[in-house]
Amino acid sequence: MMHSSRLTRRSVIKGGLGLALASTALTTLGLPMPARAAGKKVIIGAFADGGLTPFKQKIIPLAKEKGFDIEFLEDEYGVTLEKWFADAQSGAGQYDLYLLDDPWVPQFGAANVLEDLGAGGIDGADKDWIGSMIDMGYWPPQQGPRVKGFENAKPTLICVPFVGDLQTLTYRNDVFTGGAPKTWDEVIAKGKEGVAAGKIKYPVVFRGVSGNPIVTSWYPIFLSFGGAFFDDKWNPIFNSAEGKASADFFVGTMKQNAPSGVVEFDSDQEGAAILGGDAGAIIQYSGNALKADDPAQTKVAGKLDFGVVPKQEKAIAQMGIFIAGVPKSAPNKANSIEFLKWYVSAEAQAKLSEAGSIPVKRSAFGIAKPGNRLIPVALQQLDAGALPRPRTPDWAKVEELLGIELNKALQAGSGGGAALDTAAKQVKDYLTTAGYY
Amino acid sequence: MQSGMQARKYRLQGAGLDLALPYLMLAPGLLIVLGVLIYPLWDGLRASTRAYRYGSPISNVGLQNYLHLWSDAQFLNSLWVTVKFVALSVSFEAVLGFALALFCLHEFRGIRLLRTVLIIPMVVTPVVVAIVFRLIYASDAGMLTALSAAMGGGAVQILGNPLNAFIGLVVLDVWEWTPLMFLILLAGLQSLPHEPFEAARVDGAGAWRVFADLTFPMMRPVLAVAIVLRTIDAFGTFDQVFVLTRGGPGEATRLISIYGYDTAFKFQQTGYAAALFVTIGLVVLALAFSAIRLLRRIDAS
């Protein structure tokens, strides 16, 4: 008895091996997960943004009724690109569907890590798509300049538009009593009157943090001044006379009429300024705009209206749609493509519009009762003009270089034009190193 | 028959197993070290000599990535910001940590509680610390602005001003890591022999004389170790900056870790980022070796 219970080296090794084998077997065989048994599993990765609230609240339950078992994994915007790209490149297979920001499509496309959705049965030629939105799903792009290495490649549909987000104007109807201001001069002049009357504290608010936030805020002003970013050979031309005028206006006039700490403002602070009743007008995506009628989320419910972005030369907004791609490593690839087919159907798009989200099919804009006042305005903006950012996999770096220089000029409150010259040189140097020319 | 079986049993349980067992026991650990340390290091070195470009095959570029670093204004700026940050933070932490350790060396009522309270900052998760400091510094709804408003002042600009943001980051680091310095130095002070101090007092030496001639010289090796540890650690500071400023405004707080992260994961310049991190690793190693040599010299003297 004593002998049998003695701990020997052999018994330790045997026990260890047995334990290892047993755990391997258990891991391999596994027990069926309850979620897997519930329906067609689709793991969706998304970044946290108010623009997806209607989808989360109304469309996911609907998808469940259709037999999809949706697992919705949300992360902060600032970390999703690198996280998903690493997932796709390593083939880790943590997601079935990424809800990308559209400027990321070229990066994923060039790395060849997303499924061909056209081959999966999604019709990119359907006339009901908003043309400018479905165009963003192709890599290489069907129109415009192409980066080196992809000049002769056949455009493939690797993503489909998911939420048709774009910038529009949100303004205080008690300050701009004659309706949406048509020009930037009007925004500033009437905004100042609103400040003098004690209705608001600042005529405008925007994002000033370097990198993506400040470039996103400056871009519609740049477009409305008639600026263009690259020529068809990828030479930076954003430091044209129009571009410089827009940058000087942005870091000068706009800053003088915004909160004093706007240099450090990101979407949270700009949202708080407009929804808290401090700011008179803002160019923004739908995330905060969708909260405009909810007294629980704004102090000025009923006082916020939407309009097409103001113009100097043109009234062009920046598009920044949520766009869905299926990684080649997706564990439930067939389910996610089936889910997308259902999601872009006229029936589901109408439900999305009813839920208050901007749809991606034109027919859904025309439903009897869209769930939000922003939806018809978004269509007006699309028809007035809305442009995506340049289709290059190096956009993140370009945006970073430009964003740093714009942010420095914003700190100084002047020198926007000079900042664009510096950024243009840096961008040109970077693209030269990257083999663009 | 029985003796033959016994001999075989002896072979299996004794000499053979004795010879193999140490290696068998070491094998899992060695495999893990190979897998998580040696292979990534080798792979990183290999990656640092390559160029990865969308649409082009991976090419070998030799030392080009390393050479390009020294003409990259953004790299040089972030290196300079990091050196300033490390020098300032660690200096303040050493001085404050030493002062606190000297104060807490005395025994008085509540000293144990005070010692415990003083080390709390370093056990808080760095990301949480950064979020709290963001709530303090924010110009629109931050605590400093609220305090200023209560006293009739305007918004306090910390994160929107390059110099203030940099100082704000140093303050955060000093708040969080002075306790580590304090803890190491307190342990060092408590381990000093009592006799020289008693003799000095008998001879009528004042507090400053005792500090300058006894405490500081005897504490130099401990202080050097604490400074080396914190310097190496401060070079890798990432999470606080990532949450608090993301490197801005402009590039005022862009430490090398943030630039390297962006280069690798945001801009997908994998080979270049690998060269950057290898270079920084070598710089930190050089610092560590210099510090060790310095310690040896101190010991020798």
- Helix and strand pattern of chain A: HHEHEHEHHEEEEHEHHHEHEEEHHHHEHH
Q: Structural class of the secondary elements of chain A? A: alpha/beta
SS-derived structural category of chain B = mainly alpha
- The main sheet of chain A orders its strands as 2-1-3-12-6
* Mass-distribution shape of chain B: globular
Shape of chain A: globular
Specify the helix fraction band of chain A: 40-55%
- Annotated CATH architecture of the largest domain in chain B: Orthogonal Bundle
Low-confidence stretches of chain B: none
Radius of gyration of chain A: 25 Å
Helicity level of chain B: over 70%
Low-confidence stretches of chain A: 1-5, 26-37
Count of helical regions of chain B: 13
Second CATH tier, the architecture of the largest domain in chain A: 3-Layer(aba) Sandwich
| Mean pLDDT figure of chain A | 90
Specify the biggest β-sheet of chain B: 2 strands, antiparallel
Helix-strand topology string of chain B = HEEHHHHHHHHHHHH
Q: Helix count of chain A?
A: 17
> Biggest chain pair contact, residues each?
A-B, 41 and 33 residues
User: CATH superfamily name of the largest domain in chain B?
Assistant: MetI-like
Distance between the termini of chain B: 71 Å
How would you sum up this structure, described in words?
The complex is a heterodimer of chains A (437) and B (301). Chain A is α/β, with parallel strands linked by helices and 437 residues long. Chain A has two domains: 36-164 and 321-387, Periplasmic binding protein-like II (D-Maltodextrin-Binding Protein, domain 2, 3-Layer(aba) Sandwich), CATH 3.40.190.10; 168-318 and 394-433, D-Maltodextrin-Binding Protein, domain 2, CATH 3.40.190.10. Chain A has helices spanning 9-29, 34-38, 53-65, 77-90, 105-110, 131-135, 184-196, 212-224, 241-256, 267-275, 286-289, 333-343, 346-355, 362-365, 374-384, 395-412, 416-433, and strands at residues 40-47, 68-75, 97-101, 138-139, 156-157, 159-163, 168-172, 202-204, 279-284, 304-307, 317-318, 322-325, 386-387. The longest helix of chain A has 21 residues, at 9-29. Chain B has two domains: 2-47, no CATH class; 65-300, MetI-like (MetI-like fold, Orthogonal Bundle), CATH 1.10.3720.10. Chain B is globular, with a radius of gyration of 27 Å. Helix content of chain B is 77%, strand content 1%. In chain B, helix 10 packs antiparallel against helix 13 and helix 12 packs antiparallel against helix 13.
